[in-house]
Amino acid sequence: MKPEDLYHTGIVVDDFDETLDWFIKVAGYRWTDVVEVDQVAQTPDGEITIPMRMAYSGRDPRVELLQTVPGTIWVPADSGVHHLGYWSDDVESDLATLEATGMRYEVKAFNPDGSGELLWAYCKGPAGPRIELVSRAMEPFIHYWFATADTASQSG
């Protein structure tokens, strides 16, 4: 994990639509298409399905907004910042490195193609922010998603 691999700051919010509108009206943000997906993921306690709703800001520095999902790690953080998201060339290896420094994984998702490849993982330590590692294999899709901010209809 390197500083230059940081590509977004994630914020979990209770009122997703109101927060998107606030960023548009107050700060002039544009947003990608909103994605809603039931994400299957692994936790230390077993497999879960997470109903996710999220969007990215259209320009750097990227902000990722996520809808609160009660009973998961996706709840608003006291600081407002839920996580820092980093590109990873090898999520499994980077996760092992973070775990060796005292962090623990909270949730991770594998490629649904059955390859066993980790696509993303969240981990948290006793201090500092939660870290999300995102496989570079997802980078083309996420950049395509970023481009939807240029064409998405914006309210406000």
TrEMBL record:
Residues 5-136 form the VOC domain. It comes from the Bacteria. Gene3D superfamilies: 2,3-Dihydroxybiphenyl 1,2-Dioxygenase, domain 1 (3.10.180.10). This is VOC domain-containing protein. It comes from Mycobacterium botniense.
